[in-house]
Amino acid sequence: MNSLPLLSICIPTYNRAGFLRECLSSINPEELYDKVEVVVSDNASTDDTLAVLKAFQSTHPLRYIVQSENLGPDRNFDAVVAEARGEYCWLLGSDDVVQPGGVRSLVAALTSCHTDIVQFGYVQGDLHLRPQYRAAPPAGPVQTSPHGFASHLAAQPNMSLLFTFISAYAFRRSVWMDRQHLIRSWVGSYYIQMFAMHSALASGATTLAALDECLVIARGGNPNDFNTVPGRFMALDARTMSRLIREVHGDQADFWLAISQPFRRSYPAKSLFHVAANGGLGYINEARETLLRFGYSKALLRGLELLHRLKLLGAIKVLLDSRRRILNIFNSIGSLT
């Protein structure tokens, strides 16, 4: 009898004791049985993370490792997968929470689909996990031929479902471990998990199934080095997607076209105006070549430059802020009626 778990819920964390407590509390021990373990890699936290982990060991099949120094996010992702014992791994963000029944649904999908990767949806929440919107991939088995995989990527509602959001898929552990020689080259990208999944699927031998069920709530509005600086996240995504297409997908035109579609859904033209109006024009210029390849018009990018030179971006910012305040007032009135 195989004593190893089917699934390892792998949680990388750093200085998120309060959020981690919510995350672990959302994992129902009754759904774990002997098929699921929880593994946490603490990236040398200086808060109460260790106390939280010790408390949950009495209620969950939980193992944890504590890094002697902060490895950065990519190496911490690699460390927690390496520590796992399950046939499959689910990298779960320590500030996200599992929907009721989410673990049970994932175990059922892994058991029935027999694929190497299972992708699913999520509910985007605010900082307090209040639902904002739902995002999920089209359900069904996915053809992982270049054309089939490109078509699947093009259909995703946003960038998060290009395997950038760690909490929205589970994968056979061997998919990751078989690519250890490549993983080192992706450290520092902030998207080591995406490179690993795309590299496996680009080989044509890895299988993928998608569920349109939302198994997690993603916490939004959690400040970090990228989302607090206008345009920095967009520039990172543009730079990383360009590298992904060139290095993993052989610079194929199908993948430029496919990935451009969820990219533009995540960063519509109006968001570029917002970035530029809030001081992020430099990041737009940094990403210029990729933005053009993704179908943004030269007129749009030139227009932002012209508005900057004419010192009109500040006026646009005032208009955008005023519109936002008016919408907030109407939303507040609507919530009272």
TrEMBL record:
Q: Where is the Glycosyltransferase 2-like domain?
A: 8-158
Q: Which InterPro entries match?
A: Glyco_trans_2-like (IPR001173), Nucleotide-diphossugar_trans (IPR029044)
**Which residues are the signal sequence here?**
none
What species was this sequence derived from?
A: Comamonas aquatica
Q: Which GO terms describe its molecular function?
A: hexosyltransferase activity
What's the name of the protein? Glycosyltransferase
Domain of life, source organism: Bacteria
